[in-house]
Amino acid sequence: MITLLRIDDRLVHGQVAYAWTGALGANVILVSSDVVVNDEFKKMTLSLATPSGVKLLCKSIDDSIDFLNSGDSAKAKIFVLVDNSLDALRLAKGIKGLKAINVGGMRMQQGKKMVTPAVAVDQGDITNFREIESLGVEVEIRQVPSEKKKRLQNQ
């Protein structure tokens, strides 16, 4: 069962590992990325940031969709992380019953504009978020679980 799907370009870090994982009661963190799945060094660094007692899985986007739609994921409390809006869109199109995506951290880069102190988007991100919402999946912004949800469209 998916507890949350979050976009955070840092993937597993202190805020994700402790604030979110604890608040969600997650026992699995799934990093869904076609890049990370093939990067042994990145997987090692992510595993170092994962809290003890929580299993870290790194899967490609397609393998993540298969896993999350299978019975294999039903008993676990899975916190899914991606590092960009396009991967979130791919998951939103493929995962059955996904209700919401949390946007947590998208750093400023050339061509992007800040919509909150921690989220910068470009036209591609906006297009991806609109398509996600057209699928009936809410896109909301929160840095930490205690914050009130902000709708992306209101930014």
From TrEMBL:
One of its GO terms (biological process) is phosphoenolpyruvate-dependent sugar phosphotransferase system. Pfam families: PTSIIB_sorb. Gene3D superfamilies: Phosphotransferase system, sorbose subfamily IIB component (3.40.35.10). Its main location: cytoplasm. SUPFAM superfamilies: PTS IIb component. Residues 1-155 form the PTS EIIB type-4 domain. Signal peptide: none annotated. Keywords: Cytoplasm, Kinase, Phosphotransferase system, Sugar transport, Transferase, Transport. It is found in: Cytoplasm. GO terms for cellular component: cytoplasm. One of its GO terms (molecular function) is kinase activity. This is PTS system, mannose-specific IIB component. It comes from Fictibacillus solisalsi.
